Structures are given as C-alpha cells and as structure tokens.
Amino acid sequence: MVFKLLFISIFMVYATGKDIKTNYQYNENNHIKLISESVLYNKGDTKLNSYGGGNSVYYTNGLPINFDARKRWPNCPSIGHIYNQGNCRSSYAISVASAVTDRICIHSNETKNPIMSAQQIISCCYLCGYGCDGGSQFESWDFYRRHGFVSGGDYNSNQGCQPYMIPPCKLINEKSPRHSCTTYNREETPACEIKCNNPHYYTSFKMDIYKGKYYQVSPYMAMKEIFDNGPITTQFYMYRDLIDYKSGVYQYDEVSDDFFTVQSVKIIGWGEENGVPYWLVANSFGTDWGDKGTFKISRGNDGCFFQEKMYAGLPL
User: Fold this and answer.
1) Going from the N-terminus, what domains does the chain have, and what CATH number goes with each?
2) What is the pTM of this model?
C-alpha cells in the first residue's frame, strides 16, 4: 500500500508539473509566494473582475489598467516577434524559448538580445514530450534549468546555433485537404544534435548555452510578474472558433465543444476593451493569423483553463 501511494504521488508530480505538497513552486528560490484563495478575497488592493471565478482576483496595486510589454521594453524586439510553428505542435517549446529570450534582454537592461532556440527543445528535450507531436511547457522550463538553451532564430534565418527547421504554414479553418497547418501531414521531428548546425554561426555549442531558473506563477500575481520581469507563458485548451479570430476579446462559447488543440502561448500584457478585461497574448501561428499574430482573451473567468499553468523564469 505504501509503495502504491508513493507511485501515485510521483506520477501526479510528473503529470501536473507541480509538487503535491506545496502545489505551487518547483524552483528552490521562491520568487513569488503562494497566496491562498481565502486571502485573495480579502485583499484591499485588488480588483474583482465581474466575470467571477476563483482566478478573477489580481494584484493590481500600482499597475496600469492597460499594459503592453513591447512598449515598456522597446529595445527588446523579441517581445513582439511572432513565430510560425509550421505544421509542428511545438508551441510548448516556442513559447518558453521566446519568453526566455525576452527576459534575458530585459534583465540585461535591454543590452543583450540572444534568441533562444525552440528547435533544441523540440529535438533534444526527451522529457518535454514528443517533438512535433506536442509536449510540455513545464518540462521545457525545466530543460532550461537543467541543460540550458542554445541560441537559434526562425526558419531559414541563419540566426544562432540551432535555427528552427520546420517550414512555416498558414493556419486555416478548413476541412478540405490543402496545404495548411490544420490538414497538412505533420512534419517529422528533426534529430537531436549536440552541436551548432548553422554553418554561419561561429560560437561553439558548449559556449552558447544559457541557463536559468523558473517558477510557477499564481494568477493573482501574474500581472505584477509581467510588469516587473517580462512576459510569461501559459497553456490552454484551444477550440476551433479561435482559428478565425481577427480582433476583439475572445471569450469561449461554452455551447461549442469543437476542440482543436492544447496550445502554449506567451502573455505580453493585459487591458480592458469595452469593459471586458483581457490578456494580451502572442501566439505562434505567424503574422497572418489573428491580429498580426496576437490575440486578446478574456481575463478573470479562466475560460479554456487559460490561467491554470502559468510559468516564468529568470536568467542566471
């Protein structure tokens, strides 16, 4: 019986990416303290979102109603850069590599701009998942802590040690067999290489590694975390109606159950539009999708489980 309970505990820790005892922090350096739900509802410096839900209360003391990280750190162009994951379910790797890139720049006082390689995570992080068949943003963050990231830019960019190797495609809400991200055959996951595969990059693999720490972010402190340290990542259940998004604040229609994928994204800000609070999000479907690659999703009701698994990290 003891062995069985131990096995279940270990499985839950791996599956959720959380320590069951604390249900919050993985990294040994506490950056944000876990705050119980009962405390959240008694904070005098919070703003209660009218859409309700357990994650509808945020720390807002001294924070603006509208915030865009691209404007706060204008010399970190990676914050606004939109990736195209191509026909590869690699958003778990792209979102984390992108957020780490942003935070290296931000915490160097906007003087360093190395671009972290999503390709390295896809090909070499075996605990992260299944390469182009999907994976875990939590394990991608842990790969950053354990092994570190090398540099690498977009497909055909010749930037960094290991640039992205999957060609871009356009996400189209269609069912006929045309060349789009929804119907084209899934790309094969490129093999892992412990060397720089960019012939135009002259720094060695070992000398190109960037390491850091990471932590889970409480929804209550998410806005302050973004304001202080830069973009964070999350993953959510994406439904097919979001494929057609162009503008406005997306709110999941509970009548629809047309599930599309589990998508990991980078949160770069927040705001209110026509009285509706939202998160400002950078996706990885290219600039042709959404509002030049970004979208707004309702903040406060945890629709699509958007606030369940927020993570961030800091460079060492």
Assistant:
1) 67-315 (3.90.70.10)
2) 0.82
